[in-house]
Amino acid sequence: MSVEAETIEQRTAALKGLGTSRKRVEDSRFTQGKGNYVDDLKMPNMLFGDFVRSQHAHAYVKSIDTSAALALPGVIAVLTAKDLEPLSLHWMPTLAGDKQMVLADGKVLFQGQEVAFVVAEDRYIAADAIDLVKVEYEELPALVDPFKAELPDAPILREDIADNLEGAHGPRRHPNHIFTWEQGDKDATESILASAPVVAEEMVYYHRTHPCPLETCGAVASMDKVNGKLTLWGTFQAPHVVRTVASLLSGIAEHNIRVVSPDIGGGFGNKVGVYPGYVCAIVASIVTGQPVKWVEDRMENLTSTAFARDYHMQGKIAATAEGKILGLWCHTTADHGAFDACADPTKYPAGFMNICTGSYDIPTAYLAVDGIYTNKAPGGVAYRCSFRVTEAAYFIERMIEVLAIKLNMDAAELRSINFIRKEQFPYQSALGWEYDSGDYHSAWNKALEAVNYKALRAEQAKQVEAFKAGETRKLMGIGLCHFTEIVGAGPVKNCDILGMGMFDSCEIRIHPTGSAIARLGTISQGQGHATTFAQILASEIGISADDITIEEGDTDTAPYGLGTYGSRSTPVAGAATAMAGRKIRAKAQMIAAYLLEVHDNDVEWEVDRFVVKGAPERFKTMKEVAFASYTQAIPGVEPGLEAVSYYDPPNMTYPFGAYICVMDIDVDTGVSDIRQFFALDDCGTRINPMIIEGQVHGGLTEALAIALGQEIAYDELGNVKTGSLMDFFIPTSWETPNYTTDFTETPSPHHPIGAKGVGESPNVGGVPAFSNAINDAFKAFGLTHTHMPHDHWRIWKTANKLGLHA
Amino acid sequence: MIPGRFEYHQPESLDAAVGLLGKLGEDARVIAGGHSLIPMMKLRLAMPEHLVDLKAITDLKHITVDGGVISIGAMTTQAELIGSAELALAAPIVKETALQIADPQIRYQGTIGGNVANGDPGNDMPALMQCLDASFVLQGPDGQREVSAREFYEAAYFTAREDLEILSAVKFAVCSGGYAYEKQKRKIGDYATAAAAVLLTKGGDGGCSHAAIALTNLADTPLYCEEASNSLMQSGVDAASIDGAVASCMSIIEPVEDNRGPAEFKKHAASMVLRRAIELAWSRA
Known about the structure:
The complex is a heterodimer of chains A (806) and B (285). Chain A is of the alpha+beta class. Helices cover 28% and strands 26% of the residues of chain A. Chain A is built from 19 helices and 35 strands. In chain A, strand 4 (91-93) and strand 5 (99-101) form a beta hairpin. The longest helix of chain A has 28 residues, at 569-596. Chain A starts with 7 loop residues before the first helix and ends in a 5-residue tail after the last helix. Chain B has 3 domains: 7-53, Uridine Diphospho-n-acetylenolpyruvylglucosamine Reductase, domain 2 (2-Layer Sandwich), CATH 3.30.43; 58-173, Uridine Diphospho-n-acetylenolpyruvylglucosamine Reductase, domain 3, CATH 3.30.465; 192-284, CO dehydrogenase flavoprotein, C-terminal domain (Enolase-like, domain 1, 2-Layer Sandwich). Chain B has 12 helices and 14 strands. Chain B has helices at residues 14-24, 37-42, 78-83, 85-90, 92-98, 104-109, 112-117, 125-131, 149-152, 226-235, 239-250, 263-284, and strands at 7-9, 28-31, 50-53, 63-66, 69-73, 135-140, 143-148, 153-155, 158-159, 166-173, 178-184, 194-202, 208-216, 223-224. In chain B, helix 10 (226-235) runs antiparallel to helix 11 (239-250) and helix 11 (239-250) runs antiparallel to helix 12 (263-284). The A-B interface holds A 123-124, 127-128, 131, 297-299, 668-671, 709, 713, 721-722, 725-727, 729, 731-732, 734-735, 791-794, 796-797, 800, 805 and B 1-2, 4-5, 44, 103, 184, 186-190, 193, 259-262, 265-266, 268-269, 272-273.
């Protein structure tokens, strides 16, 4: 069959481009156990490093005796802060403008903190040696509750900066206070609160949890003392940033550092930051001249690398008696742990928490966030969400429910009358964002119809009557959520990490025979970049996605980018990919015109070829053009077919969705059962519907975990109570319900292909939907709000407090 | 998460294993499926110098039903309990319970002997064995003896087994009648928030000719609820007697607060779980 015989539709389908549910090209190696993760790396003479960690939440380190450990055969070195101090590496900068101890410098500030680094011939000897390092502590009172941080008897945590009145984000009012971040109009909001007909108030706590990727964090550092080159393999969501930071910290020139992210087994924000293990592995390799591996175990991952959330959000929402929202006020107490190691763009110490007006047209709003130090692990990363967006979405979606109760109004109706209307986009929010596009009413109505919302409410009312009559001990909850995300950080003019603008990049090389390789500044941790980015390119340059290799994660070969988190890969690197593809096409057009002996403007692009206008039988395919670019001398055109694009997005993207969860709750045992979950997502242009569905399923399951039990809990002494998977909830297929997914498609007006990002939407929207269902079940019995996580005993306690066990 | 150093032994007979224990003394620990011991070793909360692995002792892996008595070798895995058609007929409550232990992967490794011998109040099999009035066969340097499951548990991790003895089998009578093992847990793989094993046999007169109730993870040992069991046999099973039995059981439980919740909640959950178990068992009687 000749190519000419194919229709345009057939040729389009053959590309496997945008909109194709193409199977993930990564999966053949993952499903066959052929992935290559950090811990799979084995090198000659490789040493293994392991940490001595603090068992105390707060203590002075009086002495560290390493002699017994050093005497153990196979132990090469034991590093302490004293060893790192001459290199100025005993502390390191955090992404949030603070600094963090690499190894305990005189005191420890959280349980699990790194105290000494043992380097041994293998990990077993290292583990034995840890037990032989004798650390003498003088215990100090622990600060666990951030609301007690500024009381007169509060212990001072960060003695190193106790006298600094000015922090990275403005004035500090107390040694345990990190920053105050204010957005919006305080006076105007408070005046509306004072005069509004209806004001609802609630304290909404989003508990501390952890991204807990399947693969823990780790690195292998290898210093080649002959050529002076340091290679660092690691679980890095942002390998280029790690290279720059490693260069700045170590003094090694950046061209002599190669950072490689091999396959990564999930990140979810946990692998954005720089950890003491990376620094110690590098130092140990420089000192020994041998490769040094460091890999966390599960308990270390849960207790020492970056946590998520821990936001206490005090809210007030003002409305008319008819339910039109007039103003929103929020004061957040943010528990940051011992060091401010949040991974946020520099100017946003509370991330994009100011998206907390959500999907609603709220004319006046005010947000203040106080960051507080406590004796807990540092972090505050965006766990499957853009920076603090899931906190913001949870806050507003709870406040809407609380307001609906106050107004005695249906919460679906309350949302509907307050949505930003389609014609209001681009919409300027009261807290400073320009929402690019949306059609909330269409999505919302579609979702309500899909679940037959009115019938559900009628059934729920019957159930309440039956419960009151003693005919059942189960209640039914309907959890509503309409979320708006802000992703794709971000415009260089206001988004940077450690000064690096948050652009991203793509470099494409078309090979002579018409296949291609594209390299990006991002790094997949399971998102399927090798599949989807090839699809974007396929649609742009007319080469089948199957003939395009996508490569990421090696800083020696990939163009500079800021990495993968905050749903930024598609909005930023995806845009760079499309733009680089368009550069290829522009050059290809000149070549095609030359080959067809017509003027450049006399050919037009059609799926996979340039066609002479008005003469469809005369064309050159991209494949033919590629071959010609390497084999013919074309006047005025350089040989080869390559392009690179660095994309600075003009705005964020604003994916949104409508989620509805229906739950049955056993009032006596606190057991909840999800009957139905409907998730409608609008992520703009859909690149690969199958991957979108997979992302939604995965994100919803993480949301389910968080809402129903997943937490990092501390006791009053600062001991971690949930340091293993026995107590830290990861749902299995058994706990995971069926999900029904749907979509609307509102393309982003400023993105080259209109895509908005989706990986994090289900977590952002899922948590409020699950939580609202639990809260909603008890609404008829007087409940306004109960905190997550909604595990069995907390649900039982809620029922108990409402007198439902009498 | 790496254990300390230990010597590994794999004797091929029960006598050899008992002999090894005698020789190695208190620094040795017997290992069966290892799903309790190995995590403790990884945390270095247990640091035995010698591990005596029973897996090569083929005599310890069997399920036999003979003369109305079921005998299960200590190294029989939960998966093998679940897969035994003979056992499903002779004592279906064993399969029902085993299916609620941990997850399939663990059940391929975890053994009935390890489960009952370890003395962990969170394990499911001990209460079941008390409910079945099972006896445990203990092999020691002085020979073999049998101890009733209802007498075996002294406190958390403390049992009637002597240090030099190995639990080699569990034995109990074939059971007819209604049965139920009801368990509330936070997730797959978790220990019980509360669980109850119930056996009820309906007499010819419609009364209750046999009743046995035992509870999991509601005290520092499994609890055989003698008074409640007797009361159901005396008064039959109806709404009032179930209330009485539940109240009787609740008076002997002593749950402690942990991440599953406070004691008050556990008491309430236990009463619900027990009530459901009694109702289910009676419906099957």
